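Checklist before submission:
- one chain only
- standard amino acids only
- sequence pasted in full

Submission:
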Amino acid sequence: MEELIKILEDVRDDVDFANTKDLIDGKVLTSFDIIQLISTLDDEYDISIPAAEIVPANFNSAEAIYALVQRLQG
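Returned file contents:
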């Protein structure tokens, strides 16, 4: 999870990713941030995030993103 937080902070260093639970619903992350994040996650974790998984519920918090990565790795 610490590695993921560092990745998220590289995308946006002005957000408290450990405590923010509405990254999408609260419009904290822009569509550009999401595209950048997906690309970085693909590279860092050697996964491919299918379009069907690019939904707000999977990107609303660091925990949700971490769960997505774990699911796609397993």
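Reviewer check: Helices lie at 2-11, 31-45, 56-59, 62-73.
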